[in-house]
Amino acid sequence: MSSDQFAGSALFAQWIHPGGTLVLSTQNRNFTFNENLETIDATAGSDTTRVKIASFKNCTAAMTYVAQSSGTALLTALAAGVVGTLIFGEAGSAVGKPKTTMPAISLGINRGAPFADVVTYDISWESNAAPTFGAW
To answer: Is 13 exposed, middle or buried (0-12, 13-18, 19+ CB in 10 A)?
Structure first.
């Protein structure tokens, strides 16, 4: 039986912003992508169950990134409000592998410095246009 499974370490992710492009997957600890749909309640009259209609789609992404001690390019590129494009593929960037391109706004970086552990940054984005799903 063949398997097409892969580990999370295969992730390739980059953030294209006005100042350039950052490859984020080199220090990734965890990455999530969520696609959500808002609904409108259209229940009326003699309906016996809720009736819903589709409204707006929204996507979010988040990454836990192992902090590096030199430079501020990452902090500047991912400051809250920076607009760009998040491109990622959970199975890597080889030809034919799935790729998501999400126009987004950075929601900023949450930073903490635990006393006895590695410092990580929690980075998050929210879509500001429809994402596209394709292949590398």
So the answer is: buried
**Cα–Cα–Cα angle for 110, 115, 122, rounded to 5 degrees:** 15
Q: What average pLDDT values come out for the chain (136 residues) when binned by 10 residues?
A: 73 95 91 94 93 94 90 91 96 91 97 90 96 94
What is the predicted pLDDT for the residue at 2? 61
Distance (Å, whole) CA 24 – CA 99:
15
Return the percent helix, strand and coil in the chain, to nearest 5. 10, 55, 40
Q: pTM for the full model?
A: 0.87
Tokens of 34: 């969520």
How many CB atoms within 10 Å of residue 63? 26
